[in-house]
Amino acid sequence: MLCSGMLTFALTGGIATGKSTVCRLIGEMIPGARIFDSDACVRSLLELDSGVAHSIEGLFGPASLTPEGRVDRGFLRGIVFADLESRSRLEGVLHPRVREDCLASRDLAAKEGAALFVADIPLLFEKNFDFGQDRSLISATTRLTQVHRLKARNGFDSQLVESILAAQLPLEEKLRRADVVFWNEGPLEVLRRQVHRFSLSIP
Which domains, from first to last, does the chain contain? Predict the structure, then answer.
């Protein structure tokens, strides 16, 4: 816990397990909670940061950028989930910036007197991402549900889905390491009740 008394939690899970929904519900139910979304941070870096675009072009060539000079996320997706070395090189560009932004958001939340700071970090355990969190939370589903959601929501084919899931720790391992589990298999109201019970535990 930071000296301000602010609680800091890390939320993780697999892709398409409902992490964003859990964050939204926490924000609704816990007054003053601050949320950091690492996926949104990555999107912002890829879309708006010319320095990041330049670094990615240097790693993967002109084909990694659109004609407008922005990072082509479809191109990146096609190579980084198929090749471990390419994924590691991309992470070397993005992850230090995400960590920097996360720490800055945490410090600002503490300075402004927030009671709770939650950082949504999909690769929390894979990359041993430590920002001084008190506890780790996880949003989880079955693998079958992940596959269904990725195909229905994102339109990904089976090969890409399997490549994405293979790049993350199995949910069983994440569940073993997490302190609090939100099981997101049923209707939204079921998840809402779980988050409500969790909110009651926050001082």
Answer: 7-200 (3.40.50.300)
